[in-house]
Amino acid sequence: MQHRIVVVGGGAGGLELATRLGRTLGKRGRAKITLVDANLTHIWKPLLHEVAAGSLNSSEDELNYVAQAKWNHFEFQLGRMSGLDRAGKRVFLAPTHDEYGIEMVPERELGYDTLVIAVGSTTNDFGTKGAAEHCIFLDTRQQAERFHRKLLSHYMHAHANGSDGQPGTIDMAIVGAGATGVELAAELLHAARELAAYGLNQIQPENVHITLIEAGPRVLPGLPERIGAPVAQTLAKLGVTVLTDAAVSEVTEQGLHTKSGQFVPASLKVWAAGIRAPGFLAELDGLESNRINQLVVRPTLQTTRDDDIFAFGDCAACPQPDSERNVPPRAQAAHQQASLLAKSLRLRLEGKALPTYRYRDYGSLISLSSFSAVGNLMGNLTGNVMLEGWLARMFYISLYRMHQIALYGIVRTSLMMLGDRIAKGTVPRLKLH
Question: What DSSP character marks residue 167?
């Protein structure tokens, strides 16, 4: 009987792992690879802020799991993990319903010999009053598209009522000045210029008011200050209001209240501060988890209480050698861990010892849409090199292309890049629906 490897979660890490395993173990018949995800398509999560602003058309850049499985010798199962039976080695999947509430796929179970959990993370609103009711999170494509529809509705309303002669305004607030919040702010300013250029000019770019709210002392608190400082300067030049040391205490329909008593009016509100793993992981048949629901793993990425279960990416708390901190929840960490696990699971079938994971920080890049980009590259050959402007923007774009190469290969990715280039002059620069 073939060894059964089940990968739960089709995000960047889980999808890359299933693809790699399919091309090696699956193609050669050494194991049966199954990928489980609650959606039928994949969008690279670091690009969701572009989907929200309309800079990226998710329908054109999505990957279909069923097709990817066929091309790469693994099986895809639609479903959301709801439970686990470690003794019986079974994963339970909740039923899946369509948009009308009709059951498409029933509740069922999958057997496994090796289980890999890569379900990512969700936004952590820290229990802030009103945040869940009045803020949009950017954890999924559906949420990003919902924000985009709200943004367009403001513009369409102002455009339809433009005959009164009064210029329209729009107030937006983003909670969290990490990478997502900063990049979204810049992307929204770019969208404002594009919408005005397309004739939706009742709301002029200078009347788009964006406030970026950060509980910590500076923007990009998780990155070196030499990156955060120029980003903050650029945002100020673009007209973004940045509030630091401003923890949000309550969110209402009209805006946000901070603990210091300040009120920030906003009709569109995004919460992009903090992460936590999905709540069901904290009750997963005795597996060890931490306070933000991450599964605790050893350096081999095996869970502490079950050698047959691995976890990686944002949903895993993986220790860093010689450090009290865990591996940071970053896309490059998930990519590195997926590469390691592709090797580890092959070695496991051969009965060999598993390698351990050591996080390698290759730097950070922050895109400020068409305005600029800032970052640093770290490596044995480059040392620690600061980048800014056009060059940093090119390196930032290359990160997505590297993800595509891992999924499609060099030839198909090159053809996709060529197709994007050809189509550039035939489609709007911004999604307008």
Answer: P
